[in-house]
Design goal:
Blueprint lengths: L8 E2 L2 H10 L8 E9 L4 H14 L5 E4 L8 E4 L5 E6 L5 H17 L11 E8 L2 E9 L5 H16 L13 H13 L4 H8 L25 E8 L1 H14 L3 H17 L3 E8 L16 E8 L6 H17 L6 H6 L12 E7 L4 E3 L2 E10 L6 E8 L2 E9 L5 H20 L13 H11 L12 H11 L4 E5 L2 E4 H17 L7 E6 L3 H12 L3 E6 L4 H11 L3 E4 L1 H4 L8 E4 H8 L16 E7 L7 E6 H15 L6 E4 L9 H8 L4 E4 L2 H4 L2 H11 L3 E4 L1 H8 L12 E5 L5 H10 L4 E6 L9 E4 L16 E2 L3 E6 L11 E8 L5 E2 L23 E2 L1 H4 L2
Parallel strand pairs: 5-6, 9-11, 11-14, 16-25, 18-19, 18-20, 20-21, 24-25, 24-26, 26-27, 27-28
Antiparallel strand pairs: 1-4, 2-7, 2-13, 3-4, 6-7, 8-15, 9-10, 12-13, 14-15, 16-17, 22-23, 23-33, 28-29, 29-30, 31-32, 32-34
Helix pairs in contact: 2-4, 7-11, 8-9, 8-11, 14-15
């Protein structure tokens, strides 16, 4: 069978690029559209003839694309087809009904696909609103037109309409097929090496790090669905832009693009930003009136490192624009693909920008034409900013891929750009990192919801006073259980009082720190309460800690007395402190008074000192006062919402504040504290049996510990009846879903807080929250009462929602400071929450999503 022979022209580089994009998506995204309001008495037949006349003069408007199986790209084939002109008559409708119908019509046109291989080649829809008012809707595939083509098309139709009765004919227009051959030959010629090398020298791989907050898509996605959000700026901003441009000899385009680059850099936290800018491709005079897809987006880089003023970045941007336009005709996607810089299914330029100055309206004959809106999509992107200047109006269109961004995210982005633009033109000498990007509404949300300091109660008592009130209320209620041992509230109080009286005689009082070097047992609880009752501050030492760490901690404290157990005393490094072994001294302690001691201690005195590893690995003592501990107690109780007699299980060491979430809500409300031995805590079968037997209501545990337990063959029964509090490490949704399957009725709470902020200051109730990415990290929630939380950048400015920054915490839970270094009194704290992992950065979205 003979092969079909087709005569035609090869595609231009831009057409080949668009054709490749079309093969990746079924969506009708790559089009140029414009809505034009025509005012005046329009003769419909004459208008039709004018449209056909213009189409006859410009071959690209009549070009189809023929493709055969063996061809990588089709050929351009000029046809004799005429444009399709569809008429709609809305005269019978009211103004509001017309607007609704126009909106519906535009949506339908946007959704229909113009098949590029065959006709119809482009659509012209003429909508009659009244005898003197029409809407012209133009729709041309990106294989045949760009934004400038629409300008020429509207003007030429108007002029042809006005001159139809005369013999006046334009000089022969340049045809796109000839230009496409010229462009292809240019890129293939040897003398273009320097121009192509200009682009090949650029490192565009840096844009792979450019990911905006709230990007929804994970992995490869071929569909490209474009939506947009429009905001308009009045004359005030335009006057400032013009003033700045004239004063510093820069362009309005450069100012707007610089703002876009700065915003992208700030939101992605990258110094280098790549943006694709629209170059018209008609730099030669003979091409000014040429139809067809001549424009392209070429990438330019912006270096925002260092302390550069906004105006200096504007000059840098203007120079980059000039350079890009100079070399635009040598830009080649094929070269970038060969270098591995472009990836299928992903836009080469993730972020794009274009700028256009357009008259509000112009008159041709008895008609007045004004462009109302437009849609220009000739390349793929994640998000594109299109700026259109019309006299005293600046329109900003944020086009975005709906597979990647939600309307809410882009709306917030548009407000951030407007805030940045206003601040930049008012303060052009300001460094780019100091320019404001958080708008008024977003700032109020961040300050009000996440930063409000809620004074929930007066903090008057010390914690041991609250415990003593429970002794009076429920003296026979079981307070502490450890394996076969148990103590009632009266028994626990009596033993703590006896030890407190001994400590008082040994010199313990306010601000005196007393190390507790004991195993996990009721004796540790006795020691904690006794030290506080004596007015001192307890310092829990883990019996498993290395001797060198113990020595460093003891040197920092320089204690008068150490409370321990006889079999552990030999493990202590040599020091001048008196060693008090509870088991050895129990007989003599029994002779002490069981009455509550009357030590003079206030809520501003130390309650405990807890040593963390510190950012350098050296132990660092965090000093917590009674008022901070009281604040935490009241807040966690109000969050847990458990009955006073609830049962709490403790599976962690006393050497961390992780256990304080269950210790004090239990003992200061009349509940039962179950101290689980290390052996049982690590045995999923034994732990499950214990939790079932004692009907445990609340458990606090780390994600690592919980995950290890749930890997057992029978994970059922390992969870509490009512509240599971998870903290100490980042938590993933994967683990949360495991818990939900095993204990659907139990509340899961993510609890975050560095030791320096007293146990925890952020709470995320995960009982209803869902996430589609199992391996992603769970939000850390919202601040508890009497707490302020902000996420700030390097300039100590609020970062927008979802943007990475440093977490600053202040308020009633903030520690006094570190031993000998009271540096937290400034009421701000950048945490190092996970020990040797170092400083962790957070996104404000971690707070905002809950």
């Amino acid at each position: 069978m003979a092969k079909e022979t087709v005569e035609g022209f090869r595609l231009s580089p831009q057409q080949r690029h668009v054709w490749s994009l079309l093969q990746e998506t079924a969506e009708p995204s790559y089009h140029v559209r414009r809505a034009v309001l025509i005012e005046g008495g329009l003769e419909i037949d004459q208008f039709r003839k004018a449209c056909c006349l213009v189409a006859s003069r410009h071959e690209i408007l009549r070009t189809a694309f023929h493709s055969a199986p063996e061809m990588d790209f089709p050929l351009q084939v000029v046809t004799s087809l005429e444009p399709v002109i569809v008429e709609f008559n809305l005269q019978a409708l009211s103004h509001d009904e017309q607007q609704l119908e126009l909106k519906s019509l535009c949506t339908r046109l946007r959704q229909q696909s113009l098949i590029p291989e065959s006709g119809p080649l482009f659509f012209l829809s003429l909508v009659k609103l009244s005898s003197t008012s029409h809407y012209l809707l133009l729709d041309v595939p990106a294989l045949r037109a760009d934004a400038r083509t629409l300008d020429l098309l509207v003007n030429d139709i108007g002029r042809a309409y006005a001159n139809l009765q005369s013999d006046d004919d334009d000089e022969e227009a340049p045809q796109y097929a000839d230009l496409s051959e010229w462009q292809s030959d240019l890129l293939e010629a040897g003398e273009t090496g320097s121009g192509r090398q200009h682009w090949q020298r650029q490192d565009f791989s840096i844009q792979t790090n450019l990911k905006l907050p709230d990007e929804m898509r994970a992995g490869h996605c071929t569909d490209f669905v474009v939506r947009r959000i429009t905001i308009a700026n009045g004359s005030e901003v335009i006057v400032e832009i013009d003033r700045l441009a004239e004063q510093h000899d820069i362009s309005a385009e450069g100012i707007l693009l610089t703002c876009w680059q700065i915003l992208l850099g700030r939101l992605t936290r990258q110094d280098w930003v790549v943006v694709g800018i629209a170059c018209d491709g008609r730099e030669y005079p003979e091409l000014r009136q040429a139809y067809g897809p001549l424009s392209k987006y070429v990438p330019i880089q912006s270096d925002q490192s260092g302390e550069k003023a906004f105006i200096d970045l504007c000059r840098q941007t203007c120079a980059s624009i000039e350079k890009a336009c100079e070399w635009q005709e040598f830009f080649s996607w094929e070269d970038l693909k060969a270098a591995g810089a472009e990836h299928s299914g992903e836009p080469f330029c993730h972020f794009c920008f274009d700028f256009e100055v357009r008259p509000t309206a112009h008159s041709i004959g008895n008609l007045r034409l004004s462009a109302e809106s437009e849609y220009i999509c000739t390349d793929r992107f994640k998000i594109k900013l299109s700026c259109v200047r019309r006299e005293d109006l600046l329109t900003l269109d944020f086009h975005y891929d709906a597979n990647i961004f939600s309307p809410a995210a882009v709306s917030r982005l548009s407000e951030e750009f407007r805030t940045l633009l206003k601040n930049a033109v008012e303060e052009p000498l300001c460094r780019n990192g100091q320019l404001q990007i958080v708008g008024q509404a977003e700032q109020e949300q961040l300050l009000t919801i996440f930063g409000r300091l809620r004074q929930t109660r007066r903090l008057e008592n010390c914690l041991h006073h609250l415990f003593e009130a429970q002794v009076e209320r429920v003296p026979k209620q079981t307070a502490v259980i450890f394996e076969t041992q148990s103590l009632s509230y009266a028994q626990l109080n009596a033993r703590a009082n006896q030890l407190a009286h001994r400590l008082l005689r040994l010199g313990v009082g306010p601000e005196v720190q007393v190390p507790l070097f004991m195993e996990r047992s009721p004796e540790m609880v006795v020691g904690m309460l006794a030290v506080m009752k004596a007015g001192g501050a307890y310092v829990p030492f883990d019996s498993m800690q290395p001797s060198e760490r113990l020595r460093l901690m003891l040197n920092d404290i320089d204690p008068l007395v150490i409370v321990t157990q006889q079999h552990l005393a030999a493990l202590l490094p040599k020091c001048a402190a008196q060693i008090l072994c509870l088991d050895e001294e129990q007989e003599s302690l029994n002779k002490e008074s069981i009455e509550n001691p009357r030590a003079f201690v206030t809520d501003s005195n130390l309650a405990y000192v807890l040593f963390t590893s510190g950012s350098t690995g050296k132990p660092k003592g965090v000093a917590i006062e009674h008022r901070q501990l009281i604040n935490y107690f009241h807040e966690i109780v109000s969050i847990l919402r458990l009955e006073p007699e609830a049962a709490y299980a403790m599976v962690s060491s006393f050497g961390t504040d992780l256990a304080n979430t269950v210790i004090f809500p239990s003992l200061c409300r009349g509940g039962s504290l179950h101290i689980i031995s290390p052996e049982r805590s690590a045995d999923p079968i034994a732990l499950a049996a214990y939790l079932r037997k004692w009907r445990i209501d609340c458990l606090k545990i780390t994600p690592t510990h919980l995950n290890a337990l749930l890997k057992s063959a029978s994970p059922g029964g390992l969870l509490p009846r009512q509240r599971l509090v998870i903290g100490g490490e980042p938590l993933t949704w994967n683990l949360v879903e495991k818990v939900r399957l095993l204990a659907p009725d139990s509340w899961v709470i993510n609890h975050y807080g560095p030791t320096e902020t007293t146990v925890g200051v952020l709470i995320a109730d995960l009982s209803k929250e869902r996430n589609v990415a199992p391996d992603s990290t769970v939000p850390i929630g919202r601040p508890i009462g009497n707490t302020q939380v902000y996420i700030l950048d390097e300039e100590l400015q609020l970062v927008p929602l979802g943007v990475v920054g440093e977490l600053y915490i202040g308020g009633g839970g903030l520690a006094r400071g570190y031993l000998h270094k009271p540096e937290l009194t400034a009421e701000r704290f950048v945490p190092h929450p996970y020990g040797e992992q170092g400083e962790r950065l957070y996104r404000s979205g971690d707070l905002a999503r809950l």
